[in-house]
Structures are given as structure tokens and as C-alpha cells.
Amino acid sequence: MNKLIVKEKLEHFFKEDLGELDITTASSIMGNASGKAFLKAKEDGVMAGAELLSIGYQIINPSIRVHVLIKDGVAFNKGDIIARFEGNIQDLLAGERVLLNLLQRMSGVATMTQKAIKQLDDSSIRICDTRKTTPGLRIFEKYAVRCGGGFNHRRSLSDAVLLKENHLLACGGIQKAVRTVRNEVGHMVKIEVETTNEQEVLEAVNANVDVIMFDNATPQEIKHYVNLVPKTIVTEASGGINLESLPSFKDCGVHYISLGCLTHSVKSTDISFLLEEEM
């Protein structure tokens, strides 16, 4: 992740959460009180977002010491201590909720991504995400997909051309759409076309696109479509695929399977932030 962008977003999130003053903490805890805290996993998962802890507390109070015990991309078990902190208690609590929310969300995405990879059980096919991310959190959620062993599709609309149903309808078909795009974009921009039947697959092949997406196709249909596509063109399956149906796509022959559920249907991992009791 770009640390400058991450820092900017965290600053915005902290301002949103803290408002003018954390009334509870300011009125109940002395300003000079110091202590220790830790993060504890309440269920199994895959870590994503651990590096945010140091960046976040650097913003709140650079003197807070952060010791990460479980790195991003590493699996953890229920009861594991993920990180430890030491410093001003008011400042520890000021950053707690924002950082914990992000860590739980990102770890949930990473955990689901790893589960999807295991469900598919096909190392020849890469699992990737979509643009169905939470507004404002895309940089975090797509990073989390990578922590879980997956790959990113487009990070934004400016990454590549993806001609979908509405584009093709507005342009008058695949051939016209691809021809129009090639007259507008540079040679570094890849072109992907969404297809829904054999005729569209053949049109995309004839247009010599870079990537062909088989949208809402069954595993049997995909196996047939793949045989129509030269090896120089990357293939992708998408639409209507979830963790339950994923195993049926094993050995279907595509290069990528993109899953919106990795980010739009994920359950945050349960992690607690706790102050240590004084001995």
C-alpha cells in the first residue's frame, strides 16, 4: 500500500471518529497516564492490516511503541496475541476503534480469499477481486486480497478497458467497441471484453482482445469456450460464482476467476483490543 495515501486516509478516519474530543477518555483517565495494551484474536483468520498499527499510532502519538507479532499474510488462531502496545493510555484508546475496525475488515477479506483458494483447489487458476469494494476502503480491501493469496483485478476504472454489456450495447457490438477503443487508447492499455455466449466469444477472439471474460457461464460452458480461445488471450470467469459453487470450477481452464464476494460479502474477523491490568 502507498503509505502516503494510507496516512491521509487514517487521518481522515481519526478526525471522523474523535470529533472535537473523546469525552469519555478525557473525563475518566488522567492525561499523563501510561500503560500497555494488546490485540487478541477471538477466532482463526489470516492477518491483513498489521502495518497500519504503526502508521496509525505514529499519527496519534509517535512515542507509542508498537510491536507486531503476526505479520500480514500469516494465519493466526483463536487466542493468539497479534500485537502489543505501550504508551499514553488516552492516545492508545484514541486510535483503538479506527485501527481495530480496519484490521478486522481487512483480515476478514484476507481470510475469505484464502478460503476461496482452498475451496477451488486449482493452482492453475488465480482468484482475484472486483471493483465491488467499500467506498473509501478500496486500497485496504484490495491489499487484503493480496494478503490472502489472491490477485487484484482493476484497482480503478483507469487501469484497463473492460467492455461490458452496456458499453457493447451503446457502441453497437464487440467489433465496433474494440475498434473505437483502439483508436482512443495507447498501446499500454489492455482491453477486456465481457461475453455471454459462444458467438460473443468468437467475436472477441476475432477482435484480438487481450482478455475475454465469460460472464455467468457454467463450468461446462467455460470448458467449451476456452477451447475457442487462442492461448495468447487471457481468460476469466466471473458472475454468479460464490464459495459454495467454486469447487465446481476446478479444472475449467480459465486463467482467473473474479469474485465480488471477497469484498462485498465478507465477515469481519473478531479481534479485541485490551489494556493490560497493572500487577
From TrEMBL:
Q: Which Gene3D superfamilies match?
A: Aldolase class I, Quinolinate phosphoribosyl transferase, N-terminal domain
Q: Which residues form the Quinolinate phosphoribosyl transferase N-terminal domain?
A: 22-107
Q: What is its EC number?
A: 2.4.2.19
The entry's cellular-component GO terms read: cytoplasm
Under the GO molecular function aspect, what terms does this record hold?
Answer: nicotinate-nucleotide diphosphorylase (carboxylating) activity
Which top EC class is named for this enzyme in its record? transferase
Q: What positions does the domain Quinolinate phosphoribosyl transferase C-terminal occupy?
A: 109-272
Catalytic activity entry: nicotinate beta-D-ribonucleotide + CO2 + diphosphate = quinolinate + 5-phospho-alpha-D-ribose 1-diphosphate + 2 H(+)
According to its UniProt entry, one GO biological process term is: quinolinate catabolic process
Arranged from A to Z, the UniProt key words for this protein are: Glycosyltransferase, Pyridine nucleotide biosynthesis, Transferase
Listed SUPFAM superfamilies: Nicotinate/Quinolinate PRTase C-terminal domain-like, Nicotinate/Quinolinate PRTase N-terminal domain-like
Q: In which pathway does it act?
A: Cofactor biosynthesis; NAD(+) biosynthesis; nicotinate D-ribonucleotide from quinolinate: step 1/1
**UniProt-listed InterPro entries:** Aldolase_TIM, NadC, NadC/ModD, Nicotinate_pribotase-like_C, Quinolinate_PRibosylTase_N_sf, Quinolinate_PRibosylTrfase_C, Quinolinate_PRibosylTrfase_N
Protein role: Involved in the catabolism of quinolinic acid (QA).
Complexes and interactors: Hexamer formed by 3 homodimers.
Family stated for the protein in its record: Belongs to the NadC/ModD family.
User: This chain belongs to which protein, by name?
Assistant: Probable nicotinate-nucleotide pyrophosphorylase [carboxylating]
